[in-house]
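Researcher: Next entry in the queue.
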Amino acid sequence: MKSIKFTSCMAANADIVCRQISTYLGDRLGITTEFIADIPWQQREKLLDTGEIQVGWICGLPYVWKADQHYPIELLVAPVMQGERYQNQPVYFSDVVVRRDSSFQALADLRGRRWAYNEPRSQSGYYVTRYTLAQRGLPSSYFGEAIESGAHQVSLQMILNGEIDASAIDSTVLELELQQQPGLAAQIRIIDTFGSSPIPPWIIAQQVPADLKQQLRSAFLTMHTDPIGQAILMTGLIDHFVRVTDADYDPVRAMIPLAETVLL
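Model: Structure for this entry, 264 residues:
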């Protein structure tokens, strides 16, 4: 196999670094790579499921569902993000964001308010919110209105526009958005944080030859040691990649039953 297709099912603001990563890996291994970003992420995920796209970055919750249903995928690597809060571990958080000029100071202030989540198969925006409400003894329909926005970046814009009061935003998406839009920091506040959760992994189709899988994994794992690779990672606020196992996503599995006792 001399050609590999890559994609991302993460927020759109990660597409730039993902494209650069796929090009870098192709150059390192002397193979042709293609980054697929011109179709909706839902279609990208389906092509990952069938192996028509061989490598992709997906949310930890769909990974768990796919792994437990024996989809023909395997874990490849996972990112460790820059920043002290990540403690050099492949984890992330969900930050509860409000407008800076609002009166909200804590989750308790959001009872009966307007909330948005990105989409219902998301750990960062949906399931971890339901889990946190259940864990804190808060009821279903705690929020007055819960709107599916379609994407974390859309939720952020809805907060800025005053269409909603708050949303749980994937911390890696938020930090990248703050880097790309420096003026955003003056317009929002974080009033709570849910998690941590195991970070979305990169997966690979089982059909990819074992030697090529190993070469790809090795190139990911050593990317931060190469000045060119390190520069690419910095654009995505990634420190380095690590190898992960299915057991590393057991915390997601453990959250599901409690999360499903509460509805937004």
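Model: The chain is about 35% helix and 25% strand.
Researcher: Noted, moving on.
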